[in-house]
Design brief:
16 helices; mainly alpha; Arc Repressor Mutant, subunit A
Length: about 300
Amino acid sequence: MQLGGAWTEAFEEARRASIRLSHARGGDAGHAAYQEGEIYRLRGELTEAEQAYGRASERGRDPHPGLALLRVAQGRVDVAAAASRRVLSETSDPLKRTRFLPAHVEIMLAASDLGEARRASSELSALAERFGMELLTAMAQHAKGALALAEGDARSAIDPLRHARDAWQRAGAPYLSARIRLVMARAFQALGDTDGAVLEVDAAKKVFVQLGAAPDVAAIEAMAAPAPAGTRPTSPHGLSARELGVLLLVASGKTNKAIADALFLSEKTVDRHVSNIFVKLDVPTRAAATAWAYQHHLLG
């Protein structure tokens, strides 16, 4: 369900399983907690994600690569890189390594370790060819394209990225195809194809808004208006990732009760988030907040 974009349903199922198996260890118990962590992380709820990964570890499930990717989101890239290197060094089974290699490439690129990213990308490509699995090939093509772009070869990045995007679209995985669209947009931009970049960004943004992927929406805003040197990108007007996610749901027409149900929060907590959004954006009503979201291109 998570792969197919049904994040709310996937989270609800993982949460029920996690509660049911709260005293169990290993297997399904750890996996359920890990899946909770993944959806929290993708929504930008980093504190909750860290707690869920901790529960996964307590129940015998390796919290990586999710925990390492969480560290990247927190700006702790060195910690993420060290953990990812350790996990790979301890994993010898080729098929199990495919679980970590895509994230390892992403983390090494974030750490500016192009040599290690290149080695991991090459290994992933070799394993994809060995096992002959279409989605593993898509992961390898994504890694290859992202690496080419990082190395300054935007033209060579486009073809593997396009193949990866199309494979994930065929598989019905909107989030992953949207993530690849953003990399393609940067490649198009580097080649001076502004129209191509805008088309990819707009298509990706629609998916992120629909899913409630607040960090990715904020990343698109950062692409449009880069933060000053030495600072980390933040969402517009200082909204937290949680507040940005609530704003997206407000703008989609959901009531506070519906938002609470979607995010597994109390209605009182959502009321507080909405009040904070009104203050930060200096708007008086939900309609005004929705207009602000449209004016700042959060909804396409």
